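Lecture 7 notes: from sequence to structure.

We start with a single chain of 272 residues. Read the sequence below before looking at the structure.
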Amino acid sequence: MQIKKFDEWAGAFPDKCFEREVDLSIVLGSGWGEALEMDEVISRVAYSDIPGFGEATVQGHAGEFILYRRGNKRVAAWCGRRHFYEGVEWEKVVFPVEMSRRMGAKNILLTNAAGGINPALKAGDFVIIRDHLNFMFDNPLIGPHNPEWGARFPDMSEVYTRRLSEILRAGVNRLGFRALDGVYAALTGPGYETPAEIKAYGRLGADVVGMSTVPEAIFAHAIGMNVAGLSLVSNLAAGITNAPLSHREVIEASEQAKPRMRALIEDFLDRL
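Now the structure, written as tokens:
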């Protein structure tokens, strides 16, 4: 990846974004964009206003950065993400993570909407990601090594920080939500998986499947951030039911779960 691109895109953000450390960075996946409670908006930057970056192209991704205050916490919210299946370079996929590092964030929460593989799951459940399977067969760290981004060969024994996962679990228990600690399988997309593929991923240990999150988690962990991952099960994966899959189903499930998504993020921020 080219650090020059990050330097150019960072110029679109006002100085107030860097005047003090961010307590938490949140990357909001499909349908998660409205799950925020804000006391004060400090700054807004549309992705389309970042020269050469481009707006989010997927329904359910607002394509906007919001720096806000909630209580005594300063939060950087990335409302939508760029995806590998859009044909964009890795710099655009992990840009929210790198920019969060430059804002001083030590903690990052990565959210997504995912398909359920584990038969114990149903639409509307949450999955706290404890580990992942990278079926994208690519890695944002490939290329010239930048010492600012940690070791050349980062250890991946605990990508998702146990302490942050425990905070999510405590919130789930307090709020009485259905949730599972699970493994997220990441694929490039944009096509949904076949029933045979889902069966194979399940046998390999995957509980949910999606098209994001893992590249950001790899990069965030490598550069020393504490990482938490949270999936909303928006639908059951191919072959689990006979129903055809669609992105509309993802958006509808997210709409129904919005109050619970908001409550869980609020609880996480309070406990952080």
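Helices lie at 3-10, 90-102, 162-175, 195-203, 214-222, 247-271. Keep this in mind for problem set 3.
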